[in-house]
Specification:
By secondary structure, the chain is α/β, with parallel strands linked by helices. Helices cover 31% and strands 23% of the residues. The relative contact order is 0.18.
């Protein structure tokens, strides 16, 4: 099953050009089996997209892209708004208490946004050198190792980080426009029909991040 794990709509992510309907239509046209809607800080857009998905018979799963003191994180299985600037320690506690999961989003993204590498540089650390000095990273559940918006070398850096942390990796387009939808995704062994099954599949580690279209 192919799921694009990282998408934004303009309902809750002002930086996105996509309506939920456009996102779903593009995902279906590009051969995806489902999408995750991961709005910045808010679950409202994902809730709305999920309802539209039900109406047209296309699975939409909910997530949130949280902005923490250690960079952006993709959160699954925690269907609540998340305050900007939350500590990563507090996010891990809150999300894990309800059985949710946290993946580092685009850890080396150079073109903009707050990410793990930038947050470490701001403190005088280098992620490649000092990754083992940040204890909270051991509480994470995975890494976005394939992001459709970033160059190949940046994704390779993310893949190396996942290997160092011994964490699984997911792929997602990070779409904000129609042309980006489905540029990257995650291939799961299991067929997933609910958010409970999605969390179980992510915990299993039986999936792989794949590039579907060249950047």
């Amino acid at each position: 099953m192919l799921i694009d794990m990282h998408n934004h709509t303009r309902l809750s992510s002002p930086c996105s050009l996509l309506s939920a309907q456009e996102l779903i239509e593009a995902a279906r046209a590009r051969g995806l089996d489902a999408i995750c809607v991961t709005e910045h800080l808010s679950v409202a857009g994902a809730n709305a997209a999920q309802e539209i998905g039900r109406q047209v018979g296309f699975p939409v799963f909910r997530g949130v892209e949280a902005r923490t003191n250690w960079g952006d994180m993709l959160v699954f299985g925690y269907h609540r708004d998340i305050s900007e600037g939350i500590s990563l320690e507090a996010l891990c506690r809150d999300v894990h208490q309800v059985g949710g999961l946290i993946f580092v989003a685009h850890p080396y993204h150079q073109a903009g946004g707050w990410n793990l590498a930038a947050s470490m540089r701001a403190r005088g650390w280098d992620l490649d050198t000092h990754w083992d000095k940040l204890a909270v990273l051991k509480q994470l559940d995975g890494v976005e190792i394939l992001n459709g918006k970033v160059p190949a070398e940046v994704n390779r850096q993310a893949r190396r980080l996942a290997a160092r942390l011994q964490l699984p990796g997911i792929g997602g387009s990070d779409s904000h426009s129609v042309k980006m939808v489905g540029s990257a995704a995650t291939r799961f062994e299991a067929w997933i029909q609910s958010e409970v099954q999605l969390i179980a599949a992510l915990k299993s580690g039986r999936y792989e991040a794949i590039r579907l279209r060249s950047r």
